[in-house]
Amino acid sequence: MRKSAAAATSVVFFALAPGLVAGFVPWYLTNGWTRNDSRDRWLLEVLGIALVVASVAVLIYAFVRYVIEGLGTPAPVAPTERLVIGGLNRYVRNPMYLAVVATILGQALLLGRPILLVYAAIVFATMAAFTLWYEEPVLAQQFGSEYEDYCKQVPRWLPRVRHGSRD
Prior knowledge:
It is a single chain. The chain is mostly helical. The chain has one domain (3-153). It is built from six helices and no strands. Helix 1 (3-16) runs antiparallel to helix 3. The protein is elongated. The two termini are 23 Å apart.
């Protein structure tokens, strides 16, 4: 896949998948980003903003890596030609899923809406099931021993910082 086509497809997928899961649904669940009127929440709001900003930055960075390094997209309908093991994927196999869940958790802190904590748990459980039952078997079939070696070195969900790694 050409990088320009991968980039265009990734933009569409970004709007449809993370945009829906971490954008539209939380907006809907909170009646248009309505905040809890509780006062004295400024620290939680600041933490929520920081988490949302950092998570969205991670998500955008990861999408760009899939285009540049993988020559494809994160979308199952237009997968990468090469296994993406650089960038944040050196530390955790699923940085995009973690970023989506972290975005929702940040929104929960910012808005003071516990329903978003429940939603984040449901999203994580769904992504974990998709990863185990679909994504990993497909990647193992597509990339074989390269993917098996990668799985041995990089954890699925809890990032591990390795010293001396280069991108």
